[in-house]
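Box 3.1 A note on notation
Throughout this textbook, protein chains are presented in two layers. The first layer is the amino acid sequence; the second is a token string describing backbone geometry. Keep the layers aligned when reading.
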Amino acid sequence: MKLCYFNDYRLGVVVADNVVDVTDAVKDIPHLDRRDLMIGLIARWDTYKDKLVKATTSTTAMPLRNVRLRPPVPKPGNIVCMAVNYMEDGTLKEKPQINAFHKAATAVIGDGDTMVLPDVPATIFEGEAELGLVIGKRASHVSQADAMGHIFGYTCFIDGSARGLPPPGNVFFQMKSRDTFAPIGPWIVTADEIADPQNLAITLSNNGEVMQKFNTNDMAHQIARCIEWASSIHTLEPGDILATGTNHRGLHAFMDGDKVELTVEKVGTLRVNVKDEHKRKWARTTRLQHKEKGAEGAHTPQLSGKHAK
């Protein structure tokens, strides 16, 4: 099943190119406003699944093109992002140590929304294509053997970054948790719909040009291990997001006017815009291309605009 929010945070089930409003079928779930309903539904899925199936077959569907999709989990309790979790198309000689960081939940935006590049002296702004896991039930010190049973579903996730901010060493919070730096969506595909999440093609294009293309089978630490490790540090709750990392070789500058599309096989396509009021410019060069040229640094330098050196 594909679950989404649309318009003024009505809860929907996506069927083909249509969406069915199932808000009334779950309205008795305790909530402050409708943005809380998704997490309540996830936590009570066994009770409400049949109600949603019935509502889907008895309610008139609307074309997706006529609605505005919203982030499917607009208020996650936690966003945990795995760091350096790919073998970079098998080019790394050794598996990197498992690592992660938190991203602020208020950074979440949805399909069709805009990532806004802030007025800070970042050396580059990037967005990382990732498979996002949506936690389905409380997970604390979960074993790898039991980990997959704690996944409710999957979504597309873009991890926005403002890299190189001063001072040195003061990195992840100010780089990763900027407003609008966590696009997710366009919906959640429930776990039963994807037999092998460890073998999904991921493609990110920018203005129609493919920039990132890799497969989840290249993860350094597979999904079950990520859940085991993260849940050994703190409890994961229903509706929490665990982003599984990216292949860095295709990372490139996000700039004003960009139209970004992230497609995860069997999940869907997330589309976001990029806005920068300062119109800063970088070469449209991937990290791999930059390295192959023998250039200095991890990425192409800023060419023009505010904060350029």
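Helices lie at 37-43, 45-58, 144-147, 172-176, 223-233, 287-292. Residues 2-70 form one domain.
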